[in-house]
Amino acid sequence: MKITKDLYQGSLALLTDFYQLTMAYAYWKSGKAEQEAVFNLFFRKHPFQGGFTLAAGLDYVVDYCKNFKFGSEDIDYLAAMKNQEGELLFDPEFLKYLSNMKFSCDIDAVEEGTVVFPNAPMIRVKGPLIQCQLLETPLLNIFNFQTLIATKAARINLAAKGDPVLEFGLRRAQGIDGALAASRASYIGGCSSTSNVMAGKLFGIPVSGTHAHSWIMSFETEMEAFEAYANAFPDRCIFLVDTYDTITGVKNAIKVGKALRKQGKEMLGIRIDSGDLAYYSNKAREMLDEAGFPDAKIVASNDLDEHIITSLKGQEASINVWGVGTKLVTAFDQPALGAVYKLSAIRIENGTYVPKIKISQQSLKINVPGIHNVKRYYSKGKAVADMIYLEDQEINPKGLVIIDPIDSTRRKRIMPYFYQEEELLQPIFRKGKQVYKSPGLERIRQRAKEQLESFDKTHKRMVNPHLYPVGLEENLHHLRTELVLKAQQLDPKDEK
């Protein structure tokens, strides 16, 4: 499915920050446009103060890059731009260059549904400098949001401990495209369905929903509303019971449920959307069981998130299904992931790639130089450590040390010979040609489930999660340190 083409019906090349175009022009003007470069997209801290992040958005990236071009309307818009002196901003020859430019980059990326960690590349782009630069904003836009929402969904589903989680945040989402991307990412993160019908159509996500309080209020009595709904949908009745009084609502649902049973139909359950969810769900469970409806589900909603669900689980609330909206699709407690896109290597005239580093007074903001990949090591199916390493570096199978990129005193010895390993960055494009085939949303969702299961439960705690070991291979650590000291005009020997 061509996701962006289906949604927007045209070129998205101008979905970028203006400074990407001014840099592109300056690259072209200085003769650097075709110089080969390598950029990495990564993030620096887990969202939600958690211990893991779940990658999402790759299918969007593939679709964007396949259709990346400057159309005639894009060129016309840029051609009309003027500087402060009223002169044309861009040289017509540059605009001709853009109109003829064909996507030709190599892209490697982690597959959607992969658990990822700070400082390790999620996407690596290699190709002409101008193209790499122009891809920065759209790639960040896609991966930042979908990864954030997939992670939030995974946390909520972990808190639900196997109970179905329904995503119904469309009305509170950040616009149409935000809602669609959020529904998709939520499904990857483990939600069982969405209320978003367009997301159901575009992505094949199961859709769910019954009725709102307005349905009840449109009738003279709650009982009439329940009876009318049962008449319309006798096989899928879940009654919203808190419009007036929750206990009375449950009693009315039971009466209609008994009438349905006489017709050979079965009431599926009730939904509670307000009040003390622990108290009312337990009272409803008692009433339903006593009335002969032990299999009727109790659905809870009302501004839920992973922390409220965890609390309700701790209170032994009788809730079987969780409806989560606003706090999921808006990533309520952290509005952005904060992923960045940094130059890590550039090709010089002799054909070799020179590693590049950005330094900062904050060690967190010093990037990892060179062309690197990530290996994940497993022992008996459980993830034990991730190593960021230079791709041309020979790895000693008998033993190596990985060093935390932020705190060099945190080190872990790994014996690769005893572990299974997985290369996390996979080829997606080669010279602009797609070489990766999406496994489809269901398989992506299954990968997310398998990935999360491969990590110890301590890394998935909601509060104070245990730190999973991720480190630079020793040679990469030394290269990074050397480049930092060189940039600071210090002798590398001073490191000692």
Describe the secondary-structure layout.
Blueprint: H1 3-8, H2 18-29, E1 36-42, E2 53-54, H3 58-66, H4 72-79, H5 92-100, E3 106-109, E4 115-116, E5 123-128, H6 129-160, E6 165-167, H7 175-188, E7 193-194, H8 197-203, H9 213-217, H10 222-232, E8 238-240, H11 246-262, E9 269-272, H12 277-290, E10 297-300, H13 306-314, E11 321-324, H14 326-329, E12 340-347, E13 353-355, E14 372-379, E15 382-390, E16 400-403, E17 411-414, E18 420-423, E19 426-430, E20 433-434, H15 441-453, E21 470-473, H16 474-487
Parallel strand pairs: 6-7, 6-11, 8-9, 9-10, 10-11, 15-21
Antiparallel strand pairs: 1-5, 1-12, 2-4, 3-5, 3-19, 12-13, 14-15, 14-18, 16-17, 16-21, 19-20
Helix pairs in contact: 2-6, 3-6, 4-5, 6-7, 6-13, 10-11, 11-12
GO biological process, one term: NAD+ biosynthetic process via the salvage pathway
GO molecular function, one term: nicotinate phosphoribosyltransferase activity
Function: Catalyzes the first step in the biosynthesis of NAD from nicotinic acid, the ATP-dependent synthesis of beta-nicotinate D-ribonucleotide from nicotinate and 5-phospho-D-ribose 1-phosphate.
CATH architecture tag of the domain at 152-329: Alpha-Beta Barrel
Neighbour order of strands in the largest sheet: 13-12-1-5-3-19-20
For the record, what CATH class of the domain at 152-329 applies?
Alpha Beta
Distance between the termini: 55 Å
CATH fold-level name of the domain at 152-329 = TIM Barrel
Give me the secondary-structure category: alpha/beta
The biggest beta sheet reads: 7 strands, antiparallel
How many E strands? Answer: 21
Radius of gyration: 27 Å
Low-confidence spans: none
Average pLDDT taken over every residue: 95
Domain Nicotinate phosphoribosyltransferase N-terminal: 14-144
Keywords: Glycosyltransferase, Ligase, Phosphoprotein, Pyridine nucleotide biosynthesis, Transferase
Function: Catalyzes the first step in the biosynthesis of NAD from nicotinic acid, the ATP-dependent synthesis of beta-nicotinate D-ribonucleotide from nicotinate and 5-phospho-D-ribose 1-phosphate.
Domain Nicotinate phosphoribosyltransferase C-terminal: 373-479
